[in-house]
Amino acid sequence: MSQQRRTGTAPELALRRELHRAGLRYFVDRPPIKGQRRRADVVFPRQRVAVYVDGCFWHRCPEHATDPKNNAQWWADKLAGNVARDRATDATLAAAGWRVVRVWEHEDPQAAAEQIVALIRRNQGSTG
């Protein structure tokens, strides 16, 4: 597991390229709330939007999740913990007034970026 990239994955880079191409500027690999240990992949602090690019295996994608055969119970607990942590992060950020966008690694980066751009544009209008 230590060999897994935590940031700068291909799906994340593709999404960031599309966001940049759309004229958005953002922070990368940063906690949305100061002092929080959980980091978002892309953060728009003024608009209070945090974007996470989730891997299908690690975050249990409903379409592509697989169950390892070896050490099955350990993996089931590990992956369930990841999902529970994701939901807790979503709830914490929502309670603090943040919008959370979750993008699966298999999603089209251009389509995902278009949704994020629309959300950012709406939030820019309300934040001044």
TrEMBL record:
Question: What GO biological process terms does the UniProt entry carry, in alphabetical order?
Answer: mismatch repair
The record's annotation in Gene3D superfamilies points to: VSR Endonuclease
Swiss-Prot/TrEMBL keywords = DNA damage, DNA repair, Endonuclease, Hydrolase, Nuclease
What GO MF annotations does this protein's record show? endonuclease activity; hydrolase activity
| Domain of life of the native organism | Bacteria
Query: What does the similarity note say?
Result: Belongs to the Vsr family.
Q: What is this protein called?
A: Very short patch repair endonuclease
What is the species of this protein? Nocardia mangyaensis
Taxonomic classification: Bacteria, Bacillati, Actinomycetota, Actinomycetes, Mycobacteriales
